[in-house]
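Objective 1.3, modelling of assemblies. Example input:
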Amino acid sequence: MEGDVVEYRIDRQSGIPAYVQIVRQTEQALRMGVLRVGDKLPTAKEVVAATAINPNTVFRAYRDMEQAGLVRSRRGLGTFVTRSLARPGAEDDSPLRTEAAAWVARALAAGLERDDVLALVTAALDEHEHERSGRDDRGHEHHRQDENDPGDRGRKQEDA
Amino acid sequence: MTGPDEPAALHATELGFRYRARGEWALRECGFTVPRGRITALVGRNGAGKSTLLHLAGGLLRPAHGEIRVLGAAPGGGAARSRVALLTQDKPLYPRFTVADTLRMGGRLNASWDQPVAERVVREGGIALSARVGELSPGRRTRVALALALGKRPELLLLDEPLADLDPVVRGEIMATLMAEAAEREVSIVLSSHVLPDLEQTCDWVVLLRAGRVELSEDADALREGHALLTGHVEEEPTLREHTVVHRRTHGRQLTALVRPRGPVGGTWHVERPGLEEILLGHLQDGTRGAKGAAA
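Predicted structure (tokens):
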């Protein structure tokens, strides 16, 4: 239950707003299973003491994630993860991860650089999405999002 | 959060000041409002009037014209004195005092003194309470002065170039301390600085002074969203006519312009969203345009 599960890094040169960086890094940690349901996010004070960013930036990031149903702030206690983004297959020891690692090793051995590898993956994803959208045309517009509409649950608690 | 009726952190109307009765105006016709709870960057070139403005807000100077209010009160008066802390550039500390003496003095001079906060700020910088102030490095002296200001538990903290002369590591540490204080309790901070990169992720309000006048007083995100950095062929320049061109430069056939669009921009341009630093630099550089009215 400690707030030291994740540590945020703010890249000041990236041009990406700091609150977006916090949201993305949290999502990433959720996807990788580094953060789990029930974990406590660092307090705004802890984040700003480590990164020297404006506290409102942290409040904003946490509020956005709360509205997306990922976390919930409990007054006086902190902000807690309420939903996992981990997909079966993304954990450290999953077969997909192992295959990816092997594939990446082959790509690097073949002389590709990081950007080339990323470009290949992106291209494969694009191709796949292209095929899919061609196949089921207007099939899947609804998202899983509204399963338990996290939108205004817990929106009352303002404090992070 | 603050209610709409709560007095602003800073509110100036027609504010003017000159150092000698017949001298040039250091500040003139300054009208702006800084809301409560903001971390404000006060920027401007040397001599633009930043220190003068902070000294007026801290009650060390009196306006020659107009007025400035801090937290709804007159600067330096009974209602403001305990709620506003000003850290001037010269960081007035007694060099022969130890750090502990300095904090004790802070306790004597301030009714609302918070010794644990002051000590924590000092300790975070690894400074011994027994150290003599005169023997501290500039960064550590700044930290002691900041401890004195924060120990007062001000609602409004005015800092005149707190980061000047400090190395990047110490600047980061000082900013982190300030941000942590702001996260913990509602404090409005106004700090002047030339170190624009340090302001990018820390400040959410900007007051920009240009030759004694307020050119900008705006929310930092609104500034980012309200500007565009355009790159294109010089022949496209006429399409910018109905927009405010803050700064432009040409290189051969290429034109780069920092623009405040007044509606959709026509022409063929590569459009980028500038960072706060680029926007501030654009406004600080010499331009041909005259001073524009402040937004607030």
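Chain B touches chain A at residues 1, 39, 172-173, 175-177, 179-180, 182-184, 197, 200-204, 273, 275 (CB under 8 Å).
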